[in-house]
Every structure is written in C-alpha cells, then in structure tokens.
UniProtKB/TrEMBL annotation:
It is found in: Cytoplasm. This is Acetylornithine aminotransferase. HAMAP family: ArgD_aminotrans_3 (MF_01107). Pyridoxal 5'-phosphate binds at residues 97-98, 130, 215-218, 273. Its main location: cytoplasm.
Amino acid sequence: MTITALMPVYPRCGVRPVRGEGVYLYGEDGEQYLDFAAGIAVNALGHGHPKLVEAIAKQAATLMHVSNLYGSPQGEHFAQRLVDSTFADTVFFTNSGAEAVECAIKTARRYHFANGNPQRHTLITFNNAFHGRTLGAISATNQPKMRDGFEPLLPGFAYAPFDDLEAALALIDENTAGFLVEPIQGEGGLRPASMEFLQGLRRACDEHGLLLVLDEVQCGYGRTGKFFAHELYGVTPDIMASAKGIGGGFPLGACLATEEAAKGMVAGTHGSTYGGNPLAMAAGEAVLDVMQEPGFLEHVEAMGQRLRATLEQMIPNFDHLFEEVRGHGLMQGLKMKSDSRRFVAHCRDNHGLLLVAAGENVIRILPPLTIDESHITEFATKLSDAARVYVPAADD
Ligand SMILES: Cc1ncc(COP(=O)(O)O)c(C=O)c1O
C-alpha cells in the first residue's frame, strides 16, 4: 500500500505546527514562524487568544452538543447579535464556508420557488471565483482545477468575467436567480471588486427582482477593517455566506439573509447535525465579543494602512520581483512578476515567514487582526531579507 493514512489531497509542505501563541506558530522541533497567513484568514484573534480558549473550555465542560431537535438558547443569542450588527434578519449556522455557500445557494433557489418562479434557478458567478469544495460550491466556479473529474456537476450556474458589469448583466435571462460573488476574490488573486461593479450588481438585482448573494467567507468578519467587506461598497446583500474568522479557528460558518430572501427556508428545508451547536456558539460569541470591543475595527484599519504602506515602499527596492499591492485592511495581496508559490515557499523555509499564494501570482498577506506595529516591522524585515536573496527560476 502506498497511499498515506491522511487522504493525499493536499500538497502539504514541511512545516508541522504543534503550538501557536499570538502571531507565532511553532513546529515539532520548536522552530518559530511569524504567521501572516492565519490559517488562511481564520485565526482572526491569533493563536490561543485567552478569551476564546476560556469560552470554549467553559462551554465544553457545560454542554458541548445537543441536537437541533431542541431549542437553542445559545444559537438564538448569537444569531440575534449577528442580526443586530448586519443587514440580516435571520441566520443559519454551518460548520464551514462551503456549507454556508450551499445554504446561500439553496436559500436563493427557494426564494424564487416560494414566489412561484421555480425556473429562476441560475446564479451568475464569476471567473476565478472560489466558493469551497462541495459539489455545489465547485459548480459555482468555472476553474477546471476544482472541477475536473467531478462531473456531472450541479446545473444552474452561468459564468462571467469578474468585475465586468456589462458581461454579467448580459447573462441575465428568465432563469436567473441572482448573482453569487466575492466582494474581494481571495483564492483567485486577491482582487477587490470595483465600486461600479458591486453597486451595478445591486442595482440590477433591484431592477430585475434578483438576489445579491455575497460570499464573504474570506473577506468578511473584520478582515478589511469593516465588519463585512460590502460595507466598503455601500451595498447590502440579500444573502451572505460567512465563515473563517467568525469562529477564530473553531469550525463555524453562517448563512445570513433578509427575511424576504429567506422566505422559502421553512421547517424541513435545510439542516445540519452539528450546525450551531452550543460549543460553536460559545466560540462565535467570544470572537464577536473581542471584535465588538471599542476600537477593534479601527485598529484593523490602521494596521492595514501601515501594512499597505510598508508593502508599497518595498516595491521600488524589489521591482524585479513585485508589481503592485491590492486589498483592504489586513487582506492585502502583493502581485509578483514570477511564480508566487515558489516565493511563498522560500519565505517559509528560509525566513520563518508564513504567507499564502493565490491566483495571478499574488502573495496573500492575512495576519491575525490582533497584530501590532512590531509585527509589521518584523514582517517587513523578513520579507525584504527574503526578497534580497531570492532568484526566480528561469521558467517562473
Ligand atoms: C471565498 C471563499 N468561499 C468559500 C470558501 C470555503 O470555505 P471552507 O474551506 O471553510 O469550506 C473559502 C475557503 O477558502 C473561500 O475563501
């Protein structure tokens, strides 16, 4: 037998973390890494945040799990806080981002079904989108690397170039349910949508009775310096998928919707054994407690500006490597002129700096939202040390 016990679907690198503390990860042999990847935008409060650890430990000792057959005082309380802080009137809790996207797709289809328009089942999605790895979520992207070998996929998606309003509007027909879009594409290359694009989609939804479904799994929950990224654009969605930062590392996601958009999601239409269990709710409340402390989002915004300025200053010194900086808050991308995966590996293996590669040869910089200026200084030193000695391969 040659297959590994862990199904070999990830090209895992040599870093084998066993402990985390704040912005640092430690490997099996005690080696230290500056973690500016944060579990790909998950560890919003860094590693081992005392309030999150305490909340999980306390809830685990009190009541870890009960079925959704029973009433959920924990779920009601956390959902109400999310409702009070967002556009939404109602929340379905999931265990991951892909499940939150699945719930969002189902909610959109059920809305039109409930309105007597079951033929309006198609969501317009965008090139290079990433919505997760379930069959529904891979059907919502047209990236062959996610889809190949998994056909037949779910029908009911049409694809337009990202940030091309005209192309998106041209796809609207009698089967259209709405748009599913990341306000800032993460995996696809850290590409923020333009104002005109997102506002144009909202307008089209209002004009044609469509639903704007946002995937804020990566860009939401404080990452951009706003609670959710759509606040940067002055638009509100009808339905939104959230995950990653919402649990700070505890597996938790949420599908949020307005009362109108959720009108088809009646008893029996959806479910999840674990979704919204008391342990997950305790984790979610602890993260939200910290994020709603006065000044938290302003701190993210300030650190984001500092990080961006640091990156922009670095470009002229290494203009053979770096091209431009993209993003908002602590979701920044550095576009490279050569293979960003190789450079990310170099930073990791030779300079103890963890980053994430994305499409279009972009490096994603996604530190915990709790970083301070000293971490940005340390990051800048490591990144410039790494860039100084780096030689791209001839075929990059
Ligand atoms: C925008 C977006 N949507 C959905 C997902 C899927 O989330 P999960 O891996 O928790 O299923 C991701 C994960 O990276 C993501 O970035």
